[in-house]
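Write out the bound-state structure for flavin-adenine dinucleotide.
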Amino acid sequence: MTQAKNFAFGEDEKLLRDTARKFLQDNLPTDKLHQLVASDPDPYRESLSLWDKNLWQQIVELGWTTVIVPEADGGMGMSLVALCALVEETGRVSLPSPFIATSCASLVLRECHSPAAGHWLGEIAGGSTATLACTPKNGSWLAADCDVELVDGKLSGSAWFVQDARKVDNLIVQAKTSKGTALYKVSTHCEGLNIVADAIIDLTRDQAHIHFNNVPVGDAQRLSDDARAVLERAEPGLLTLVAADMCGAGEWQLQTTVEYMKVREQFGHPLGYFQALKHPLVNLMIMIDQAKSLTYNAASAIDSEPQNAAKFARMAKASASEMAAFASNRSIQFHGGIGFTWECFVHLYCKRQKHNQVLYGDAKYQRAKLAEILMGPISA
Amino acid sequence: MSQQAKKDTPEQAEFRAYCRDWLSQHDEGTPSVRLPQSAIEIMHSEQLSFLRKWQSEAYEAGLIGCDYPIAEGGGGRKDCQMVANQEMARAGKPFLPNILGLGMAAPTMHFHAQAALKERLLPGLFSCKDVWCQGFSEPGAGSDLANVQTFAERKGDKWIINGHKVWTSLAHFADWMILLLRTDKSSKYDGLSYFVVPIKSALGKGVTVRPLIKITGETGFNEVFFDNLEIGDDYRLDEIGKGWQVAQTTLLHERGAGPMLTPSSGRGSAKSSAIGDAYALINLAKNATRDGESAADDPLLRDQIMQMIIRQEGSKQGARRAKVEGLCEHPMRIPLQAKLVMSEIRQDTSALAIDILGAQSTLYINDENAPAGGEWPLAYMNSYGITIAAGASEIQRNILGERILGMAKSK
Ligand SMILES: Cc1cc2nc3c(=O)[nH]c(=O)nc-3n(C[C@H](O)[C@H](O)[C@H](O)COP(=O)(O)OP(=O)(O)OC[C@H]3O[C@@H](n4cnc5c(N)ncnc54)[C@H](O)[C@@H]3O)c2cc1C
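---
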């Protein structure tokens, strides 16, 4: 298959994105976000999952969670590029929501090609939410490291780093079986499940580890008998969505800092007059543009040039992670003392970016994997 | 069918087929001397005559100036230069020598010259009958270009020019020059005017060209002195005092961000076109060793190579995204980055190539044992030309910070 024209970003995609941008700007200006997630600065406070459920309900009604669900399963069946554009907007406002988690779950379900997965995609299109519970305590994605096991039709063990676990209805669980690893759908409300909140840095999402104590699962919940293959096929999409979130958040960090450079004066000049501030912000703009171009390239490759999907997605995630680190660093530094306070909004984005940077592997990890694709493995 | 061919308009598709057909039958021959890495490093007339013949044949075939009006010597087509460029590069053709003409003089004349002047000068520019150069920079006017002091004094319908230009690429071969000069000393910007000037015919009669030698040992740029050179008023572009505005058209095209796409034709053989390409670092590493092991197994080098490839791919995809308005924050945001980003990627790629080559990177173009003919260390040194010329990187960052991000103007 060949490269899509204009990244397959046409009028429909643009309309969807423009509507989303306006909706989010109207409903979640940064001061409101700060009130929502940062009212209690105490690092020893109980770990909370702070989000606006009403806003989420409206988002579901706008159809964002149906965008990449195939039409056959009750969704809109649009391109991944369209979803990326939406995720970029949610990153720009640092939206606390199960949107990315559910989108990642949809990407995995899309790759299962089983009736059960089709059914659950339909549930997502109908407004239900989900997240991936596929990672063991060491953070690895290798099947051998999976900590959940299926014995006599029951799940035991634990899954870690589960994104927005306290916001979702369902889990997609990777479990070792006698034949390898399988994927199961489990309700977050079922018996035998213990969801333990992690105390994380990012205020705009929640994360948990989950203990499974003999949770019974039936055939209707079995999504795939080959979790490895499914997760491997879905991985480029997951990387691309996180990269899109970073691009949106990075643009907010850039524009917010640039605004400050226009209004704050020292030595008789607005700060932007000084090249020690101006030039790094230009460098940040260039990094954002690179990351964004690579992200749209990856998204369109996943839909139309699958042979290049893994390669381009790793490039996007690596590029966006480096950009996010630089954006956070400069946006705090260039605000001076005020940038170091809880009251200033820039730390919210720094924390979301930090979480994004490591999610599904940081820049160095992505480059090592990319090198394996482009150069072959390191000889023993 | 190639990916590009699939998106062609009917006119482009037909033209592409024509280009392919012509290129497959055309043979430019083999140069008798080593060709430099780009047109601004042409030192010898043997290099120039080979390249000039190639440009003239490509023009005769209709592959150069395709989108210019027929009256101006162009092809009268729409969005076809891009097709010709893609096909010439694909065919591995050598570069076009008259780049200051094609990339700067032609679009500037197209937008600002009287019809008679364009019709007279553009065909010879496209065919490379006339080599062109750009007389902008002066000893006291580099980054601060509007400070040019070369002066033209009005005498009836003539102008008398005195002054000193510097870094003038290709002036040693040039027939014509685009010249930014001062016609009024009382106003910095509004005192500038813009001319085209025949310099070869005036050599020894008011024009002196003196070569300068680059860090590479190559020549290619020059000093040009004007000593009471007399030219007609019909060589002026646009109005008196509008030189700065005309120069903006030149600079926009020089930085690859103007509306007229510059004709270009790749870099020649497969060997030389790999120089400067980040993907070429992979094979370089596979063929180099560190401590007796393959350099391609060194995790640090692998990481750095991947960083370069990601940046290069990012800028390539950026050019693709720049065409999709809905995915761009500001229409000029990516175009104005192009020259800065490309030049720094090329510089960093060449520097990394040198690291990979290790001890062998000490061997220069005249050493028979030099890997890739010593072209990588040469490319590294030449890369400073691109980060300095056409507005140095620091100036590009000022422009981006001010025009795109809206921050206060720096001094
Ligand atoms: C290979 C090559 C080919 C060239 N060909 C041509 C040609 O054909 N015709 C032509 O007219 N010119 C040509 N030039 C000249 C080129 O345009 C100038 O060299 C360039 O504009 C820089 O001017 P300068 O050399 O006077 O450096 P300067 O302006 O003196 O700059 C020196 C350093 O200071 C930095 N600097 C200057 N001002 C600022 C500022 N305000 N803020 C921050 N940093 C600043 C610059 O970025 C640079 O790093 C060529 C140059 C090269 C290297």
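---
Residues A 275; B 40, 100, 133-137, 142-143, 167-169, 221, 385, 388-392, 394-395, 398, 410 surround flavin-adenine dinucleotide (CB under 6 Å).
The first helix of chain A runs from residue 11 to 27.
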